[in-house]
TrEMBL record:
<dbReference type="GO" id="GO:0046872">
    <property type="term" value="F:metal ion binding"/>
</dbReference>
<dbReference type="InterPro" id="IPR050963">
    <property type="entry name" value="Sirohydro_Cobaltochel/CbiX"/>
</dbReference>
<dbReference type="InterPro" id="IPR002762">
    <property type="entry name" value="CbiX-like"/>
</dbReference>
<dbReference type="Pfam" id="PF01903">
    <property type="entry name" value="CbiX"/>
</dbReference>
<protein>
    <submittedName>
        <fullName>Sirohydrochlorin ferrochelatase, chloroplastic</fullName>
    </submittedName>
</protein>
<keyword id="KW-0456">Lyase</keyword>
<dbReference type="GO" id="GO:0051266">
    <property type="term" value="F:sirohydrochlorin ferrochelatase activity"/>
</dbReference>
<dbReference type="GO" id="GO:0009507">
    <property type="term" value="C:chloroplast"/>
</dbReference>
<dbReference type="GO" id="GO:0019354">
    <property type="term" value="P:siroheme biosynthetic process"/>
</dbReference>
<keyword id="KW-0479">Metal-binding</keyword>
Length: 219
């Protein structure tokens, strides 16, 4: 059995539902893991395999019309968290950029550990602002233990205080082709800084780290 639908990035996705997977969180509740699916560019018959996954409270999320952020959705952008205050503040800057670019009304930052606000704090804030669904987007590159276990468990604990509020933990950034542009832009900008053509970027500002390490050549 398969199901086709349009996602927010305008790819047509064909989900294969033959082998659903479910996990049990530390709190004992069940969450479904979105199946692997094929993604098909619109107006083409060529298929490319995708491994985009998501965690959802229940299977109701997998039906036509369930996709796209609404005015009553809260979005949480969650990173790992750091003991370094400057690193945590960068997430706040990103959330402001994200909210401005998308126009989503309810967007909150959260740190998985080591700093506040926590996922629970951000979840509470979303509900207080009127959210009736919460989308938790991990600001992580790849699906490691934090995505498989820690974030779903923390999200489950946060949701227990808000009966009736469905939530979703989306896929991490992963192998998204736009990341190629991001990485290339970072490389090009840092090389421009080393050449003295531009100032340090916001990430490196004040650190003096964006420079070549000069090593003695062998004689």
């Amino acid at each position: 059995m398969s199901l086709k639908f349009l996602s927010c990035n305008q790819w047509v996705h064909q989900l294969h539902l033959e082998s659903p997977v479910s996990l049990t969180t530390a709190k004992g509740s069940r969450i479904e893991v979105g199946p692997r699916f094929l993604r098909l560019p619109q107006n083409t018959q060529h298929k490319s395999l995708s491994t985009s996954l998501c965690f959802a409270m229940d299977q109701k999320i997998v039906h036509e019309g369930a996709f796209g952020v609404s005015q009553k959705d809260g979005v949480i952008i969650v990173d790992h968290g750091s003991r370094r205050k400057e690193s945590n503040l960068l997430l706040n800057e990103f959330v402001l950029m994200f909210k401005s670019k998308t126009g989503y009304p309810i967007v909150e930052p959260a740190h998985m550990e080591l700093a506040e606000p926590s996922i629970k704090d951000a979840f509470n804030s979303c509900v207080e602002q009127g959210a009736n669904r919460v989308i938790i987007s991990p600001f992580f590159l790849f699906p490691g233990r934090h995505w498989h276990q820690d974030i779903p468990s923390l999200a489950d604990a946060a949701a227990l205080e808000h009966p009736g509020i469905n939530y979703l933990v989306t896929a991490p950034l992963g192998l998204h082709e736009l990341l190629v542009d991001v990485v290339k832009d970072r490389i090009d900008y840092c090389l421009s800084h080393v050449a003295g053509k531009v100032e340090e970027c916001a990430v490196c500002a004040g650190t003096g780290r964006c420079k070549f390490k000069v090593q003695d050549s062998e004689n």
